[in-house]
Design a protein that fits this description.
Oligomer: single chain
Strand content: 5-15%
């Protein structure tokens, strides 16, 4: 009994570590490179787990059942050690834009793969051994596996809210060593007597656990001077200039030491005079900058903010209630106060910024001491859908709420996506007073009106959506240098408003690009304003070879304007010297590099080693089986990536979407796999019912999901997460039947090609992750989900063909999960 408890506890911890590792690696990669790498971590985890399982499959003598505990000891200890080695590689990793050297970019991304994969290789070996060699019921073992993986999704959020990213990785290694300790009592003798001497460190998991845990805690205490990321966004980190570094589950905030210089402004008028002030420069994930000014409480100290184009709207609305989305260093809240507002609410997703302003740096900046200033730590859409719904704000400001990482990477998966969609802006406009205004500032390129055009398109589509007949009377777009500010009024602008804006822009040297009484400054802006409806706005993307269509929750990639299906758009990006579309091209090339490298990896290390297993096997079986496992691999990953991207909008951040999405998918799919052992698809009728039900659910999902999430959008994050799990659970239960049913069907005909089908399924999952991201960007999240529905519908037809190959196949569908090493149809637990 004690041995069983130790075994299950060890397995629980290993699987928990695997999911925590994946989520933390995604967070670290977001600092080193860009946010679109969430799918890359998923892909590499699947690759490593599949390869590890195949190692076990092809070495049955070494991994004999009687050596189970002994092998689990050294494998889990090796996992812990390799996590530390992987961490040291990651913190010194540099990635570059392919435009600066394509071959070098390929080499550097290959290094990232080498850093990411090894821990999953050992984890795949451990989990495969547990499922195929343990003497206990497979349902019990698989339950411990799933429970650990599910808790790992949540554990990652807890650890990242407590420790910095590097220390979190070290703590995961410590937990992996603890897992090895649980296997040690029963496996110690074999390890001592049979393993090479250089494996000696793997015989001391308790020592490893203590050393790694102390290293994690000590490194956290030494921050920012301990082990840290040496490179962020291609730039060497100047840690000597850091005064504070704070991590949480979705960001890394760096506050630099106080410097005296001219105030950091987004679009400060060149006609104004500025004096040097004390300020702290801060950045998010290595690149997105903001500033905190020294402020003693005398509002005159920040009067210079009146000269910034981002604050233009305050000249026509400066009394009543105001709100700011994205507090950052507090500059926008100070601007609201400087112009006259005395009821100012800052809504900030990142609690670190609020902590800096209200506690850590309160003596430096006394914004929090001003009467009428309040902070709300919440995701903006959720807060304005609930607490802010009926506030009646006279001005709502959202200035430069992005990360430059987003703009450069093409925003494949970002927290800001939900703030730049028609559905999001509808919430913001509904929170305004009858004459209130919503002002948004973004980057502007006079030579290529790209991001500004999409911003205007989004505003017009939102106004049309809320029933405004003539949006042109509600929009003013001004610019200065490389920044534009859009003002959206709930009511038509008055003559006094327009006159005031004309006077201020002339005085400050700003220019009006769009306005009720001003001609549009470019052909793109002119045609956007002339578009009669949303369909016409969407059609402009093809005309200009630039995606200026209004983003929606179904296609929320505001920052990606490259049309990857349009050769002229690709050519335009190649010819661009700078700007959003140039960054989009770089991110797209990186995506293609990753897909290509993944393909080479799965061919060389998964497919080719498994190829001998198909010799002297029926071509018909190989053909049908290969199609089956390709389809469930692609179908599963299309669902998983699509659901994670959609949940990122609903839950407010990609990390929440990743953690909750994986938790729900892993748990429900695992339960489905277990149910398939007790309720097999043992007849053609059951096979078609299963395939049809899954395809129908997936096909209908994009239609009922928006109203479903709308019901819970105003709820706290815990309720929204529960709703997300409820939405995913039926999908997971049905998808869980796919892999064990397929294995039962092919094994009933011939067991020899099992490794081949297993590798095909893993390879499909690895490649499908990147392809799913591309589909989401080029078309929509719904398209990705509908493609998965087609995959599962075809799976049913192929399953019928396999079942008819042998009269024994139907009764053999009830084969135990224990007959194959790892149900890897996208399970990365």
């Amino acid at each position: 009994m004690a041995k069983k408890v130790q075994f299950l506890a060890g397995l629980f911890l290993v699987c928990m570590c695997v999911l925590m590792l994946q989520i933390v690696q995604t967070r670290i990669l977001s600092v080193i490179s860009f946010y679109h790498l969430a799918f890359f971590a998923i892909s590499m985890a699947m690759f490593g787990m599949t390869a590890g399982s195949l190692i076990v499959y092809f070495n049955p003598r070494f991994f004999a059942p009687e050596r189970l505990f002994a092998n689990m000891v050294w494998i889990t200890a090796a996992f812990a050690v390799v996590v530390v080695l992987s961490t040291t590689m990651l913190i010194s990793t540099v990635v570059i834009d392919p435009a600066r050297g394509f071959l070098l970019a390929v080499l550097l991304w290959s290094k990232v793969i080498v850093a990411l994969v090894p821990p999953y290789l050992f984890a795949g070996m451990a989990v495969s051994l547990a499922l195929t060699r343990s003497p206990w019921p497979v349902g019990l073992v698989y339950g411990a596996d799933l429970a650990g993986a599910a808790f790992g999704c949540l554990g990652a959020l807890v650890l990242m809210s407590t420790l910095d990213g590097v220390s979190t990785m070290l703590m995961i290694a410590a937990i992996g060593a603890v897992a090895s300790c649980t296997f040690a009592p029963a496996g110690r003798d074999y390890v001592k007597n049979t393993l090479p001497l250089w494996f000696g460190i793997l015989q001391r998991p308790r020592l490893l656990a203590i050393v790694f845990a102390l290293a994690a805690l000590g490194n956290a205490a030494l921050q920012p001077n301990g082990l840290h990321l040496t490179v962020a966004k291609g730039q060497i980190e100047d840690v000597g200039n850091f005064d504070y570094v704070g991590w949480n589950s979705y960001s890394r905030i760096v506050a630099e030491k106080i410097s005296r210089n001219y105030p950091m402004m987004w679009g400060g008028s060149s006609k104004a005079q500025y004096e040097k002030i004390d300020q702290r420069y801060m950045n998010i994930d290595g690149d997105a900058g903001t500033a905190m000014y020294r402020f003693s409480g005398q509002i005159g100290e920040v009067a210079f903010l009146k000269n910034d184009v981002t604050n233009l709207a305050y000249y026509i609305r400066n009394h009543g209630r105001s709100a700011v989305i994205g507090v950052g260093g507090g500059r926008d809240l100070l601007a609201a106060y400087a112009f006259g507002f005395r009821d100012v609410t800052g809504v900030e997703l990142n609690s670190i910024f609020v902590d800096l302003l209200t506690r850590r740096f309160r003596d430096f900046n006394h914004l929090a001491d001003l009467p009428g200033v309040r902070f709300e730590v919440d995701e903006a859409r959720s807060w304005f859908a609930s607490a802010g719904r009926n506030r009646g704000f006279d001005l709502l400001q959202m200035s430069m709420v992005d990360t430059w990482a987003a703009t450069g990477a093409g925003a494949f998966s970002l927290s800001e996506n939900g703030l730049y969609t028609v559905e999001g802006w509808r919430k913001f406009l509904s929170s305004l007073a009858p004459t209130g205004v919503f002002t948004v500032s973004r980057w502007y390129s006079p030579k290529d009106v790209d991001e500004t055009g999409r911003l205007l398109s989004l505003a017009k589509a939102t106004l049309l959506d809320v029933g405004v007949q003539d949006p042109s009377r509600h929009l003013v777009l001004a610019a200065f240098d490389n920044l534009s500010t859009l003002i959206v009024s709930r009511a038509p602008f008055s003559r006094n408003d327009l006159a005031r804006l004309r006077d201020v822009t002339a005085q400050m040297g700003f220019s009006i690009l769009v306005g009720p009484d001003a001609p549009e400054a470019s052909e793109v802006l002119q045609q956007i304003m002339a578009a009669p409806d949303v369909a016409a706005l969407q059609a402009l993307a093809a005309k200009f070879h630039l995606d200026v269509s209004p983003p929606t929750d179904d296609r929320p990639f505001f920052f990606n304007q490259l049309r990857i299906t349009d050769p002229a758009s690709m050519l335009r990006a190649m010819q661009a010297d700078s700007g959003v579309i140039k960054g989009n091209l770089g991110a797209t090339i990186v995506l293609l590099i990753i897909i290509a490298l993944s393909f080479v990896l799965v061919v060389l290390t998964i497919a080719l080693p498994a190829l001998p297993s198909v010799r002297r096997v029926s071509r018909r079986l190989i053909g049908a089986g290969t199609i089956y496992f390709l389809l469930i691999g692609f179908g599963f990953m299309f669902v998983e990536i699509g659901v994670i991207q959609r949940l990122s909008i609903f839950l407010g951040h990609p990390v929440y979407g990743l953690a909750v999405g994986l938790f729900a998918v892993i748990l429900s799919t695992g339960v489905g796999s277990l149910i398939s052992d007790r309720l097999p698809l043992s007849s053609p009728r059951r096979l078609m019912l299963w395939s049809g039900a899954l395809a129908f659910y997936l096909g209908a999902l994009p239609f009922w999901l928006p109203p479903f999430v709308g019901i819970f959008e105003a709820s706290p994050i815990v309720i929204r997460a529960a709703a997300a799990v409820l939405m995913v659970a039926p999908l997971g239960l049905l998808m869980g039947f796919g892999f064990p049913t397929g294995m039962a069907l092919v094994n009933a005909l011939d067991t020899r090609p099992t490794p081949w089908f297993w590798s095909i399924n893993g390879a499909a999952g690895v490649l499908a992750a990147g392809i799913a991201v591309a589909v989401n960007i080029a078309f929509s999240i719904s398209t990705c989900i509908w493609l998965s529905a087609i995959c599962y519908l075809l799976v049913g037809a192929v399953a019928l063909a396999l079942a008819r190959e042998s009269p024994t196949a139907r009764s053999a569908v009830a084969v135990s999960i224990q007959s194959f090493a790892r149900p890897s149809q996208g399970h990365i637990d």
